[in-house]
Amino acid sequence: QVQLQESGPGLVKPSETLSLTCTVSGGSINTYYWSWIRQPPGKGLEWIGYIYSSGSTNYNPSLKSRVSMSIDTSKNQFSLKLRSATAADTAVYYCAREPQTRDWIDPWGQGTLGTVSS
Amino acid sequence: SYELTQPPSVSVSPGQTASITCSGDKLGDKYACWYQQKPGQSPVLVIYQNTKRPSGIPERFSGSSSGNTATLTISGTQPMDEADYYCQALDSSTALFGGGTKLTVL
Asked: Deepest in the core among A64, A112, B55, B104, taking most CB within 10 A?
Protein backbone atom coordinates (compact mmCIF):
# COMPACT_ATOMS: atom_id res chain seq x y z
CA GLN A 1 0.00 0.00 0.00
CA VAL A 2 1.46 3.32 -1.09
CA GLN A 3 2.26 5.80 1.66
CA LEU A 4 3.40 9.40 1.38
CA GLN A 5 5.33 11.44 3.93
CA GLU A 6 6.02 15.17 3.79
CA SER A 7 9.15 16.70 5.25
CA GLY A 8 10.82 20.08 5.36
CA PRO A 9 11.40 23.17 7.48
CA GLY A 10 8.30 24.08 9.40
CA LEU A 11 9.13 27.78 9.57
CA VAL A 12 10.36 30.25 6.96
CA LYS A 13 10.60 34.04 7.02
CA PRO A 14 8.52 36.29 4.78
CA SER A 15 9.99 36.66 1.28
CA GLU A 16 11.93 33.41 1.65
CA THR A 17 11.27 30.12 -0.16
CA LEU A 18 9.15 27.38 1.40
CA SER A 19 10.65 24.01 0.43
CA LEU A 20 9.03 20.65 1.07
CA THR A 21 9.78 17.07 0.04
CA CYS A 22 7.45 14.09 -0.21
CA THR A 23 8.78 10.55 0.08
CA VAL A 24 6.77 7.76 -1.52
CA SER A 25 7.00 4.28 -0.05
CA GLY A 26 5.29 0.97 -0.78
CA GLY A 27 5.07 1.55 -4.52
CA SER A 28 6.70 3.05 -7.58
CA ILE A 29 6.69 6.74 -8.33
CA ASN A 30 6.46 6.00 -12.05
CA THR A 31 3.34 6.51 -14.24
CA TYR A 32 1.45 8.65 -11.73
CA TYR A 33 0.81 12.33 -11.16
CA TRP A 34 2.17 13.60 -7.83
CA SER A 35 0.42 16.59 -6.35
CA TRP A 36 0.68 19.18 -3.63
CA ILE A 37 -2.43 20.53 -1.89
CA ARG A 38 -2.55 23.03 0.96
CA GLN A 39 -5.03 23.99 3.64
CA PRO A 40 -4.71 27.24 5.62
CA PRO A 41 -5.70 26.86 9.27
CA GLY A 42 -9.47 26.57 9.57
CA LYS A 43 -10.00 26.90 5.82
CA GLY A 44 -10.56 24.73 2.76
CA LEU A 45 -8.33 22.83 0.37
CA GLU A 46 -6.35 24.41 -2.46
CA TRP A 47 -4.60 22.38 -5.17
CA ILE A 48 -1.12 23.75 -5.83
CA GLY A 49 -0.11 21.59 -8.80
CA TYR A 50 1.33 18.30 -9.95
CA ILE A 51 4.49 16.81 -11.35
CA TYR A 52 4.34 13.69 -13.49
CA SER A 53 6.91 10.95 -13.17
CA SER A 54 8.43 12.13 -16.47
CA GLY A 55 9.02 15.57 -14.94
CA SER A 56 6.23 17.46 -16.68
CA THR A 57 4.38 19.91 -14.45
CA ASN A 58 1.08 21.75 -14.18
CA TYR A 59 0.48 24.47 -11.61
CA ASN A 60 -2.56 26.27 -10.27
CA PRO A 61 -2.72 29.55 -12.22
CA SER A 62 -3.13 31.44 -8.95
CA LEU A 63 0.30 30.26 -7.75
CA LYS A 64 2.08 29.55 -11.02
CA SER A 65 4.46 32.52 -10.82
CA ARG A 66 5.89 31.40 -7.46
CA VAL A 67 5.78 27.58 -7.63
CA SER A 68 8.19 24.99 -8.93
CA MET A 69 8.21 21.22 -8.51
CA SER A 70 10.85 18.58 -9.13
CA ILE A 71 11.04 14.81 -8.94
CA ASP A 72 13.79 12.29 -8.15
CA THR A 73 12.58 8.89 -9.28
CA SER A 74 15.74 7.19 -7.97
CA LYS A 75 14.82 8.27 -4.44
CA ASN A 76 11.03 7.98 -4.89
CA GLN A 77 10.75 11.64 -3.87
CA PHE A 78 9.22 14.79 -5.27
CA SER A 79 9.52 18.34 -4.04
CA LEU A 80 7.77 21.71 -3.86
CA LYS A 81 9.29 25.18 -3.78
CA LEU A 82 7.12 28.23 -3.11
CA ARG A 83 9.04 31.47 -3.57
CA SER A 84 8.45 34.87 -2.02
CA ALA A 85 6.39 33.36 0.79
CA THR A 86 4.01 35.52 2.83
CA ALA A 87 1.88 34.90 5.90
CA ALA A 88 -0.97 33.97 3.54
CA ASP A 89 1.05 30.87 2.56
CA THR A 90 0.89 29.52 6.10
CA ALA A 91 -0.96 26.21 5.76
CA VAL A 92 -0.83 22.47 6.18
CA TYR A 93 0.78 21.16 3.00
CA TYR A 94 -0.23 17.72 1.77
CA CYS A 95 1.41 15.62 -0.89
CA ALA A 96 -0.79 13.13 -2.72
CA ARG A 97 -1.13 10.92 -5.78
CA GLU A 98 -3.40 11.28 -8.80
CA PRO A 99 -4.08 8.45 -11.26
CA GLN A 100 -3.56 8.70 -15.02
CA THR A 101 -7.15 9.86 -15.49
CA ARG A 102 -6.72 12.54 -12.78
CA ASP A 103 -10.28 11.86 -11.66
CA TRP A 104 -9.42 11.73 -7.96
CA ILE A 105 -6.62 12.27 -5.43
CA ASP A 106 -5.61 9.32 -3.29
CA PRO A 107 -3.73 8.55 -1.14
CA TRP A 108 -2.69 11.66 0.79
CA GLY A 109 0.23 12.19 3.11
CA GLN A 110 -0.36 13.14 6.72
CA GLY A 111 0.43 16.79 6.00
CA THR A 112 3.01 19.16 7.37
CA LEU A 113 2.46 22.66 8.74
CA GLY A 114 4.39 25.31 6.89
CA THR A 115 4.50 28.59 8.78
CA VAL A 116 5.65 31.89 7.29
CA SER A 117 6.59 34.27 10.05
CA SER A 118 9.43 36.56 11.05
CA SER B 1 -13.05 31.12 -13.31
CA TYR B 2 -14.80 27.85 -12.52
CA GLU B 3 -16.15 27.40 -8.99
CA LEU B 4 -17.66 24.57 -6.97
CA THR B 5 -20.21 25.64 -4.38
CA GLN B 6 -21.14 23.65 -1.27
CA PRO B 7 -23.40 24.54 1.66
CA PRO B 8 -21.24 25.49 4.66
CA SER B 9 -23.08 23.15 6.99
CA VAL B 10 -25.54 20.28 7.06
CA SER B 11 -27.10 18.69 10.14
CA VAL B 12 -28.57 15.23 10.41
CA SER B 13 -29.91 12.98 13.16
CA PRO B 14 -28.21 9.61 13.73
CA GLY B 15 -29.68 6.93 11.49
CA GLN B 16 -31.13 9.44 9.04
CA THR B 17 -29.97 10.30 5.52
CA ALA B 18 -27.61 13.20 4.90
CA SER B 19 -27.25 14.83 1.50
CA ILE B 20 -24.44 17.24 0.64
CA THR B 21 -24.56 19.08 -2.67
CA CYS B 22 -21.82 20.50 -4.88
CA SER B 23 -22.79 22.91 -7.65
CA GLY B 24 -20.86 24.07 -10.68
CA ASP B 25 -21.56 25.04 -14.26
CA LYS B 26 -22.24 21.83 -16.21
CA LEU B 27 -20.67 19.80 -13.40
CA GLY B 28 -22.57 16.78 -14.67
CA ASP B 29 -20.30 16.81 -17.73
CA LYS B 30 -17.26 16.27 -15.50
CA TYR B 31 -16.29 13.63 -12.97
CA ALA B 32 -16.76 14.69 -9.35
CA CYS B 33 -15.27 13.08 -6.28
CA TRP B 34 -15.73 13.53 -2.55
CA TYR B 35 -13.38 13.58 0.44
CA GLN B 36 -14.06 13.21 4.14
CA GLN B 37 -11.80 15.09 6.54
CA LYS B 38 -11.95 14.68 10.30
CA PRO B 39 -10.23 17.19 12.64
CA GLY B 40 -6.46 16.89 12.55
CA GLN B 41 -6.52 14.24 9.81
CA SER B 42 -5.81 14.14 6.10
CA PRO B 43 -8.68 14.00 3.62
CA VAL B 44 -9.92 10.54 2.69
CA LEU B 45 -11.48 9.74 -0.68
CA VAL B 46 -15.03 8.40 -0.19
CA ILE B 47 -16.51 8.70 -3.71
CA TYR B 48 -14.81 8.98 -7.11
CA GLN B 49 -16.05 9.26 -10.69
CA ASN B 50 -19.40 10.53 -9.36
CA THR B 51 -20.68 7.23 -8.01
CA LYS B 52 -17.85 4.78 -7.20
CA ARG B 53 -16.75 3.83 -3.71
CA PRO B 54 -13.10 3.03 -2.99
CA SER B 55 -12.32 -0.18 -1.22
CA GLY B 56 -12.95 0.09 2.51
CA ILE B 57 -15.55 2.86 2.30
CA PRO B 58 -18.88 1.80 3.85
CA GLU B 59 -21.85 1.16 1.57
CA ARG B 60 -23.82 3.91 3.29
CA PHE B 61 -21.79 6.42 1.26
CA SER B 62 -23.09 6.98 -2.27
CA GLY B 63 -22.80 9.61 -4.95
CA SER B 64 -24.75 10.93 -7.88
CA SER B 65 -24.42 13.68 -10.44
CA SER B 66 -26.71 15.40 -12.91
CA GLY B 67 -26.90 18.77 -14.60
CA ASN B 68 -25.05 21.31 -12.48
CA THR B 69 -25.03 19.34 -9.23
CA ALA B 70 -23.17 16.44 -7.69
CA THR B 71 -24.53 14.96 -4.48
CA LEU B 72 -22.97 12.91 -1.70
CA THR B 73 -25.52 10.86 0.23
CA ILE B 74 -24.90 9.15 3.53
CA SER B 75 -27.62 6.68 4.43
CA GLY B 76 -28.08 5.65 8.05
CA THR B 77 -25.65 8.36 9.17
CA GLN B 78 -23.52 7.42 12.15
CA PRO B 79 -21.86 9.72 14.69
CA MET B 80 -18.48 8.72 13.24
CA ASP B 81 -19.51 10.37 9.95
CA GLU B 82 -19.34 13.82 11.53
CA ALA B 83 -16.63 15.57 9.52
CA ASP B 84 -15.92 18.11 6.80
CA TYR B 85 -16.72 16.97 3.28
CA TYR B 86 -15.16 18.41 0.12
CA CYS B 87 -16.14 17.88 -3.50
CA GLN B 88 -13.51 18.08 -6.23
CA ALA B 89 -13.47 18.18 -10.01
CA LEU B 90 -11.11 19.07 -12.83
CA ASP B 91 -11.38 22.25 -14.88
CA SER B 92 -8.87 22.80 -17.66
CA SER B 93 -6.39 20.45 -15.97
CA THR B 94 -6.65 22.34 -12.66
CA ALA B 95 -8.05 20.39 -9.71
CA LEU B 96 -10.70 22.47 -7.96
CA PHE B 97 -12.24 21.91 -4.54
CA GLY B 98 -15.54 23.08 -3.19
CA GLY B 99 -15.42 25.20 -0.06
CA GLY B 100 -16.35 22.28 2.16
CA THR B 101 -19.41 21.27 4.17
CA LYS B 102 -19.36 20.59 7.88
CA LEU B 103 -21.63 17.64 8.61
CA THR B 104 -22.99 17.62 12.14
CA VAL B 105 -24.64 14.48 13.48
CA LEU B 106 -26.91 15.33 16.40
From this structure: A112
A46 touches chain B (CB under 8 A): yes
Q: What is the pLDDT of residues A35-57, one digit of tens each?
A: 999 999 999 999 999 999 999 99
Looking at the predicted structure, is the pLDDT value of residue A10 above 90?
no
Scanning every residue of chain B, which has its alpha carbon at the shortest distance from the alpha carbon of A43?
B99
Name the DSSP letter for residue A108: B
Query: Which of B6, B84, B94, B102 should we substitute to test contact with A (largest number of A Cβ atoms within 10 Å)?
Result: B94
> Rounded to whole angstroms, how far apart are CA atoms B32 and A19?
31
